[in-house]
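User: Can you help me understand a structure? I only have the sequence.
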Amino acid sequence: MYEVKLPQIADKDTESMIVFWYKSEGDEVKKGEILVEVQTEKATTEIEAEEDGILQKILVDRGETAKAGDLLAQIKPLSEIATQKETASSGLLSKKERKAEPGTFDESSQFVRVSPRLRKLAKELGIKLEEISGTGKDGRITEADIREKASKEVADYQDIPFAGVRQTIAKKMMNSLQSSAQLTETAWADVTVLDDVRKRSQKPFSWNELILFSVILALKQHPALNAHVFDDKIRQYVSVHLGVAVNGKSGLFVPVIRNADALSLTELKDKAAGLIEKARKNRLSADELSGSTFTVTNLGPFGIQFFTPILNQPEAAILGTGKIETDLVLQNGQVKERKRLPLSLTFDHRAVDGAPAATFLQTVIQNLQEPALFFEKSLANE
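Assistant: Let's start by predicting it. Here is the structure, written out as tokens:
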């Protein structure tokens, strides 16, 4: 019997969650085929079969977690199956062995013969096949039988365990709040002129890309915010490794744009777009999810204005951006229409005081409010 074990995926001995089994019990597998997809520390990995055979038993179901070295499944090699069949033809196969052979059963066996697709459906819905009375031809179980059984067993609540990405996020958020002195400062940025310049630009830059670029410029002027905070020291970085929070299908991801301060606005646009796309498809590597020195998170698309971002430890600060909206203001006795962007800066008061943090936020705002200087700097790097 060939054993499928969870390999050491990350440097740290963390738990992995089973995301999806590509094969069901009883299916034939070939060497090199993908058996299962697992997720560790927000990065996904596919495990392949190392031998031809029959997937005999899945020991860790979808949604459950395991550690490196844990047994995930058992595969009976085709060579072993061939040997058993030869023995059976000679009349030497015991009753116990016949029951273990894939695809066979007798009256005392709990194995129910259905297609791999229906077996997978029953497992996903939490239905035991042996408890279903089939309505198909010769009493066979149909998809309708399985779904009807599932509909009758629906509870008025659902338990969702802390596992995989959700577990990682929960631990990081709790640790962040409990082990740092977090304070949030908020301010508006008038982006009326920048909006006009953006619309007239020959290159289609998004608001998110312009905000990221303005933050990078500000961090170069205020290195105290481009830092990590530890119990016994503050580590300020020369290069800006910018984290960009992305809402993926299975949770929050923070891909990292390394050496972002060395990129032109166009290069930043391309790099950010590539990482965001990979995050949404859950295809980021562990290296692409680590090493950020400052993070930007955007809730504007969800209609949020100001909020309180939680530090992505060990970073010293994080900037949250909200929804750009139109506002009416009084200028020289006249009512004028202006566009404004809400900004929320959370920082670790152990490393940065309120005034330096406010000065950094003012620099970000100045970059956004003076697009002539903003684009002059960006074009100089093209």
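Now, to help you interpret it: The chain has three domains: 2-100, 112-154, 182-380. The mean pLDDT is 84. Let me know which part you'd like to focus on.
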